[in-house]
Amino acid sequence: MYTGRFAPSPTGPLHAGSLVAALASWLDARAAGGRWLVRIEDVDTPRCDPAAPERILAQLAACGLYPDAPPLFQSTRGAHYQRALDDLLARGLAYPCGCTRREIDAALAALGSAHRRHGERPYPGTCRGGLHGRTARAWRFHLEEHMEKRAQTLSTPAQAALFSIEDTRVHWHDRRLGWQSQDVARAVGDFVLRRADGPWAYQLAVVVDDASQGVTDVVRGEDLADNTPRQIVLQQALALATPRYLHAPLVRGADGEKLSKQHGAPALPAERPLHALRAAAQALGLPAPPRPAPIPQALAGWVAAWRDTYNRAP
Ligand code: GLU
């Protein structure tokens, strides 16, 4: 059965940009006659606002977007992520890393890798050969006075775990963007599954949860499209099904950047949900409903238009 989801990170209330992703995933599920779930992606707890989940659900409800099941909170799912991580570690597909950010920067600088503005720089592979190999190298190259401190740091178990990428060119299909391709080894390299300070990485959590919630269709903002190949290689490593993907257009601010909380996007105005929905539908290229259409009629019109555009039978 078609199962879609909207997976907000609760760093704040919905804004005009996140409503577009919510509306697109809801429309796709309704156009397919399927289920629509909400998953609160609260893995990065220091960045999360405890009041945000309730606020987000109230904002969705004001817009007539009701999930078909109570929301799933990623903060309750650690045991599932741990099982997946243990499996990858046991099979040698992931490995622990004890580097500090500064050490990674230094290794990259030594390789002549310049900082990329939006891109992530591939991990230099320092701990691929094992923490001990690295310790040996570190002891050879670092100043004597650092040795004692270093020995202490390394005697505590390193928790950051990385997924090991070999030569992997991933070809995948997006229902809006068409065929896509990424050389994951070159574009991102080995990537983090769990941070050394504890939080689970988005890539691992999203893959485990999409599978256990039976998500068949991921509909989300285009800014996440280049994460998809990493998620596909993880799905393959964990023998999980790959859902269909559709990456929706982004709402950009005057500076051309994606509208986001970090860029100061204001919360949706509570008193004008239809206005906010109209703007979101416009961003998705859907026709304006006749005025004055109440929210349920406007949504029904957009479901029909969405079905025409993305060709899904009900
Ligand atoms: N939590 C992510 C975000 O708010 C979305 C994750 C996803 O849809 O895969 O950007």
Characterization of the model:
The structure is a single chain. This protein is of the alpha/beta class and 314 residues long. It is 40% helix and 15% strand. It has a five-stranded parallel beta sheet. The longest helix is centred in the N-terminal third of the chain and has 16 residues, at 16-31. The model is unreliable at 132-159 (pLDDT under 50). Glutamic acid (GLU) binds at residues 7-9, 41, 206, 220, 224.
Top keywords for this entry?
15% strand; globular; alpha/beta; 11 helices; three-stranded antiparallel beta sheet; five-stranded parallel beta sheet; 314 residues; binds glutamic acid
- Overall 3D geometry? globular
Quaternary structure classification: single chain
Rg on CA atoms, Å: 22 Å
Distance between the termini: 12 Å
Find the structural class using helix and strand composition: alpha/beta
Mean pLDDT: 85
Largest sheet descriptor: 5 strands, parallel
Helix coverage percent: 25-40%
Strand content: 5-15%
Please count the helical segments. Answer: 11
Bound ligand species: glutamic acid
Q: Going across the major beta sheet, what is the strand order?
A: 3-2-1-9-10
Low-confidence stretches: 132-159
Offer a concise description of the structure.
The protein is α/β, with parallel strands linked by helices and 314 residues long.
Topology, element by element:
Layout: E1 3-6, H1 16-31, E2 35-40, H2 52-62, E3 72-73, H3 78-90, E4 94-97, H4 101-110, H5 131-141, H6 144-155, E5 160-163, E6 169-174, E7 178-183, H7 184-187, E8 191-194, H8 202-212, E9 217-221, H9 228-237, E10 244-248, H10 273-283, H11 295-310
Parallel strand pairs: 1-2, 1-9, 2-3, 9-10
Antiparallel strand pairs: 4-5, 5-8, 6-7
The protein binds glutamic acid.
